Amino acid sequence: MKIQTKKERFKEPLRLESGRILEEYELIYETYGELNEDKSNVIVVCHPLSLSHHAAGRYADEAKAGWWNNLIGDGKAVDTTKYFVICSNTLGSSYGSTNPLSIDPSTKKEYRLKFPVLAISDVVKAQMKLYDRLGIKKAKAIIGGSMGGMQALCYSIEFPDFAEQVFALATTAYTRPWAISFNKIGMEAIRHDPIFKNGNYSKDDIQALGLPGLAIGRMAGLICYLSPNLFNRKFGRDYASTDGLYELFGRFEIEKYLEYNAYNFPKVFDPLSYLYTCKMMNIFDSGRNEDTLENSFAKVKSKLHLISFSDDMTFFPEEMEEIKDIMIKIGKGEQVTYKMVESQSGHDSFLVEVEKFEDYIINLLEGKK
Amino acid sequence: MKIQTKKERFKEPLRLESGRILEEYELIYETYGELNEDKSNVIVVCHPLSLSHHAAGRYADEAKAGWWNNLIGDGKAVDTTKYFVICSNTLGSSYGSTNPLSIDPSTKKEYRLKFPVLAISDVVKAQMKLYDRLGIKKAKAIIGGSMGGMQALCYSIEFPDFAEQVFALATTAYTRPWAISFNKIGMEAIRHDPIFKNGNYSKDDIQALGLPGLAIGRMAGLICYLSPNLFNRKFGRDYASTDGLYELFGRFEIEKYLEYNAYNFPKVFDPLSYLYTCKMMNIFDSGRNEDTLENSFAKVKSKLHLISFSDDMTFFPEEMEEIKDIMIKIGKGEQVTYKMVESQSGHDSFLVEVEKFEDYIINLLEGKK
């Protein structure tokens, strides 16, 4: 599989949903496979909150392959011998696209908290500029889970002529207060962390000291991305063999797991990017521009394929069923499919239980239902 | 209804589950109604994590009555014209019983982080000393929800001759990793809060500055004590009218609710008490002393009445069903009743949806099934 990582700089201002303007911006993106001559074999992949444009393949120095490597590759469900796959790092994220630590051209300093709040629609609009520059007018499909699923839904509504098929996994038409609450923990913990210094933190400090506030936010995320049953199965009540049961800070294995993953997170993800990306997810609402969800989904021309996961504790299956019901209600039942996967890994099932829905995706990509 | 608040001091050492010893201790408690002549009308009420011995009635200067005032009172389900009700503040809690800010007799200083880790069994054992001092040998019933339900279960196993009936609501036989994870957020946030000063905080600082770490822990608690449906119904996607949608720190109403409740919490609850009480809940395991749950529940002589709530996100109904199944498996099916209440308020349903189970309790207290 041919992998390329590239960056494009856009000098044309991007008018944001908020009314503010991003004077210029960069998008870093990765591609897998080869673009065919008539540019008709494109599949767009959209990443979730904490992940990057590195969706598949493995670089020489990498311990782990890209985050959807089980789905994307030669001979896999998203077959890179057939398709040319593009995954862009979202605006605001901390993996190389323009974000709060980028230089504000009007001040020549990092934006920090002066960075504008972005919406999912802004991320998608910027990515459309990228495809345009690459001469890509149409996509065979768009696929995304969680925040990537929000992008997929947004493409289907805002750019209805772009993709033939849109796959939205483990996502929602609008973020509900349950998911907002988990993000709130992180947002508050970051704001109150003295190392954060109201956004004026030193990046070296964070590499040296970590950022407990962001780690605590990550813990809240890990809880709602997994599930009670998974925790029971994986950790049960196992206790750290090094710790005393009656030590106040002695730890169950689940606590060690949360600590390990959470305290590493600030080394790879920036706290301002975390704040802006949480905010972007919180304000996501497919119905905003058209007043109602019905009006928004009435614009959809693609086939819309919805996949939910039975034990998703972030975006519950009912939230995806609601989209299916709306499509049926507005007379677009022929354009929508819905599958609930019986999962055991919570929200993250879309990343780790690919074997349960890959055939479904293959059949749909091949035009079977 | 006659209400009395009293404190008892115990000079006899309490040998703790951990092997450590609490040299002396105090318990503050409240009683409602009148103890009858043969002391046969006692009902013990056990409080959850963040509440106190003030379970019912309203003092002259109080805006709100005690936390289970809808259940306990003259003519109510726990009828104080018939019963003499006792509710003790648990050891370790911050409402007046011995806790980490009490004076350690061996050093004449506050314990702080030298306070021993307590188990639910220690709390219950100390309360038994209180009943003994009051000349109470038997209880008509014990009733508790959440951490109070853990105490109720512990009484039924450790002191099987004490109560005729035990009511455990919204609780579990052993704390699972899901609930431990929510507590973990608070424990980590408190530890990393610079105002906490590794347990050597100034109480005046906390009154003046709050303690964001404890507030963030409280937020995590509030999320798992409520439920996604309740959040949808109560807050939906309403946005604070004072805040901008595209302001990074602009807030949805759910966020304002969490902030309001969380940031007030450190004014009424001590962070060390919070840490010790979370730890006590985390290590709760009905099977510990007897190796298996079956052996533990084999000791039960009381009628055991289990009430779960359909949308409880802290202790899921399956956890209480498991206790019922164990009782049946060990041949004690006649001693157990189980009711799942169709609730809409999450874990906190045991506090706020009393009308859905009060008749059930009344009938059982009167010996009907």
Enter the CATH topology name of the largest domain in chain A: Rossmann fold
Top-tier CATH class of the largest domain in chain A: Alpha Beta
Q: First CA to last CA of chain A: what distance?
A: 28 Å
Mean pLDDT of chain A: 97
GO cellular component, one term (chains A, B): cytoplasm
Protein name (chains A, B): Homoserine O-acetyltransferase
Pathway (chains A, B): Amino-acid biosynthesis; L-methionine biosynthesis via de novo pathway; O-acetyl-L-homoserine from L-homoserine: step 1/1
Keywords (chains A, B): Acyltransferase, Amino-acid biosynthesis, Cytoplasm, Methionine biosynthesis, Transferase
Can you give a write-up of this model?
The first copy, chain A, has 369 residues and is an alpha/beta fold. Chain A folds into two domains: 3-175 and 285-365, Alpha/Beta hydrolase fold, catalytic domain (Rossmann fold, 3-Layer(aba) Sandwich); 179-279, Rna Polymerase Sigma Factor, Chain: A. Chain A is 34% helix and 18% strand. Chain A has helices at residues 120-133, 147-158, 177-191, 203-209, 212-225, 228-234, 253-268, 271-282, 293-297, 317-329, 349-352, 358-365; strands at 3-10, 14-15, 21-22, 25-32, 42-46, 72-73, 78-79, 84-88, 103-104, 109-110, 139-145, 163-169, 303-309, 336-341. In chain A, the strands form four sheets. An eight-stranded mixed sheet of chain A has the order 1-4-8-5-11-12-13-14, with helices on both faces. In chain A, strands 2-3 form a two-stranded antiparallel sheet. A two-stranded parallel ribbon of chain A has the order 6-7. In chain A, α2 (147-158) links the parallel β11 (139-145) and β12 (163-169). In chain A, α1 crosses α2 (147-158) and α3 runs antiparallel to α5 (212-225). The longest helix of chain A has 16 residues, at 253-268. Chains A and B meet through α3, α5, α6, α7 and α8 of A and α3, α5, α6, α7 and α8 of B. Chains A, B: One of its GO terms (biological process) is homoserine metabolic process. Chains A, B: Belongs to the AB hydrolase superfamily. MetX family. Chains A, B: Its EC number is 2.3.1.31. Chains A, B: It is an enzyme of class 2 (transferase).
